[in-house]
Specification:
Polyamine Oxidase, Chain A, domain 2, about 475 residues, 7-stranded mixed β-sheet, binds flavin-adenine dinucleotide, 3 domains, 16 helices, 5-stranded parallel β-sheet, FAD/NAD(P)-binding domain, protoporphyrinogen ix oxidase, domain 3, alpha+beta
Length: about 475
């Protein structure tokens, strides 16, 4: 334990709960600050939503596949782990949207589906004539009153019409949150546009301001790793082992209690519980797990965590021979609005988007279909065969492929994506305030300040820094003989 009056300083013990990107990064940061670290992952593997496996002999991600390259944290970590040579960028950025019975190129010049360029929107033919005519009313309508927060559909629908919400904004947000525009928070999911639109009456003008403020030639928006983004988790775990971090899998943490010295964790199955003591704890598990763990000791945070809902989804990955298609799939893929969906909400043409994938297997076409949005849990009760059939039917409709794939993989992600619903930012502020009063505790991961990989890395670094600060202060007060609060 920290601060004991012995000659050799005893390193503080930090327990990290959850081995996704957030937990792995928090453990790395804590170990680099000199702590003794134990990482406890409930499942059989670390990585969480980062996982890669082979399909038709090619390494294709089962979960997250693209990392925002315009935030620094992801690429910084990649470089720190010596993976800079493995960074790959998309071969194409053009994407499409299925609307009114056909695929249309995504109009250029939009901010998360909110049009900044009305000519490009008209040319794309994504909206009906009536929907298109409704859009410019935004330029003349009086201010839309909005309080602290408003739903994405509420504000955007009022400004530019429901068709923009249904056929552009919701499908794009669906790619990130698998959520519904009427539930998601405008402030939390579109912070840039929310800021810009506060000072402006027109949302189109706000979207233009955001577009014009973006740096020109800022480089690719996304990146990945050649053997799959999942290898980032594997490389992190290997680095942790080098740093003497104890990395444990199948170590589900079931209970967390405060002790006079720090924390006591109960780990493993109910019949053979194991007790582990730590000076500080970082919870990097999803909100549902954090809720259970904090129920006794930080009930206010626990109750708030219970209010964060999750969407479940499945990814069906199909590998075809290239000759199976009347024409090779174009662009990086397409989105399907809920109003037109048969279940598949997004399709990624992986081998077109990431050309490095087929270096070893030219002629192969790999496609990922995402199935399921928030509130569509019944879809995921279908069997693997039914999900495969759903994906194949979708691809037959849009690409004309009728041959069977050479390989298919179904990945189910139950409780995968936190829903940043209206009031999310205030909820997170209340959780942070409740946790701030508790020494040796920090939370991080996708539930809080951003669900993408770079945001999770940032939240993990902040959590490790918070715990380290607390331990340093505690060490100082114990050596000066002050009592710990
Ligand atoms: C299909 C899919 C595609 C995605 N695509 C992208 C993308 O392309 N780009 C992007 O940036 N983001 C993407 N995301 C989002 C991103 O992957 C996640 O938000 C992020 O990886 C979450 O990391 P995390 O560490 O917070 O949580 P997780 O990855 O969920 O890790 C949490 C870990 O905690 C463990 N755990 C839970 N309870 C306990 C317990 N009691 N004790 C011990 N361990 C526990 C879990 O087993 C899990 O391993 C995608 C997500 C999904 C599901």
């Amino acid at each position: 334990m920290v601060g004991h009056m012995t000659d050799a300083p005893i390193r503080a013990h930090v327990a990290v709960i959850g081995g996704g990107i957030a937990g792995l990064t928090a453990a790395l940061q804590a170990a680099k600050s000199g702590a003794r670290v134990t990482l406890l992952e409930g499942s059989a593997d670390v990585g969480g939503k980062l996982r890669v496996s082979e399909i038709a002999g090619l390494p294709v991600d089962e979960g997250a596949e693209a990392m925002l390259a315009r935030r620094p944290e992801g690429l910084e970590l990649v470089r720190e782990l010596g993976l800079a040579d493995a960074v790959a960028y998309p071969g194409t950025t053009s994407a499409a949207i299925w609307s009114r019975g056909a695929l249309h190129d995504m109009p250029s010049g939009h901010i998360m589906g909110v049009p900044a360029d009305l000519v490009a929107l008209a040319r794309s033919r994504v909206l009906s004539a009536a929907g298109l005519a409704r859009v410019p009313l935004d330029l003349v309508r009086p201010v839309t009153p909005r309080g602290e927060d408003v739903s994405v559909a509420g504000l955007i629908g009022a400004r530019v019409g429901e068709e923009v919400v249904d056929r552009l904004v919701e499908p794009l947000l669906g790619g990130v949150y698998a959520g519904r525009a009427e539930d998601l928070s405008f402030e939390a999911t579109m912070p840039g546009l929310a800021d810009a639109s506060r000072a402006r009456r027109s949302l189109i003008t706000a979207a233009r301001a955001v577009r014009d403020a973006a740096p020109a030639n800022a480089g690719p928006v996304f990146s990945t790793l050649t053997a799959g983004l999942g290898t980032l988790a594997q490389a992190l775990a290997a680095r942790l082992v080098e740093l003497d971090v104890t990395v444990r899998t199948e170590a589900m943490v079931r209970e967390l209690r405060r002790t006079p010295e720090g924390w006591r964790l109960t780990v493993g199955p109910t019949r053979e519980p194991e007790v582990l003591d730590a000076d500080a704890v970082i919870i990097a598990a999803p909100a549902r797990a954090a809720r259970r763990l904090l129920q006794e000791e930080v009930p206010v945070a626990s109750a708030e965590l219970g209010g964060i809902e999750y969407a479940s989804m499945a990814i069906v990955t199909l590998a075809y021979s290239g000759t199976a298609f009347p024409e090779p799939p174009r662009g990086s893929g397409y989105l399907v609005p809920a109003v037109e969906s048969s279940g598949v909400k997004a399709v990624t043409f992986s081998t077109t988007k990431w050309p490095h994938l087929i270096d070893g297997a030219p002629g192969m076409v790999v496609i990922r279909c995402s199935i399921g949005r928030y509130g569509e849990e019944q879809l995921l009760q279908r069997s693997d065969d039914e999900l495969k059939a759903m994906a194949m039917t979708e691809l037959a409709r849009t690409t004309g492929v009728i041959e069977l794939p050479v390989d298919v993989r179904v990945t189910r992600w139950g409780g995968a994506l936190p829903q940043y619903s209206v009031g999310h930012l205030d909820r997170i502020a209340r959780i942070r305030a409740a946790v701030a009063g508790v020494p040796g505790l920090a939370l991080c991961g996708a539930a809080y300040d951003g669900i993408g990989i770079p945001a999770c890395i940032a939240s993990a670094r902040a959590a490790a820094a918070r715990v380290q600060d607390g331990l340093t202060r505690r060490g100082q007060s114990e050596t000066t003989g002050e009592r710990r609060l």
